[in-house]
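Q: I'm writing up a methods section and want to include an example of the input and output format. Could you take the sequence below and give the corresponding predicted structure tokens, formatted cleanly so I can copy it straight into the document?
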Amino acid sequence: MIYTKLPHTELEVSKICLGTMTWGRQNTEIEGHEQMDYAFEQGINFFDTAELYPIPPHPDRFADTEKIIGTWFKKTGNRDKIILASKIAGKAEFTKFIRTTGFRRESLI
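A: Here is the clean output for your methods example:
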């Protein structure tokens, strides 16, 4: 695996990032765990997620992908070995159920 340093940090991330937007809808928790196991075994240490995953966003499943990643971290103990990139949902009609507190710093934290 090829790694690169994130600018202005000492973090080295794999050039390949594992996307997770299907876990909890198109893929089950077990399949998500299998995909993370495989990626990790190949040297991938960079995972991407978002609070609105899985896609398409829905009030009954938002953040399910993040929960699946969390159960994998708990099961494997690999949290300190993965760089997890996450994104917030922007203002849109289809994401209004995610954040009702606005986009101030305090709300996002």
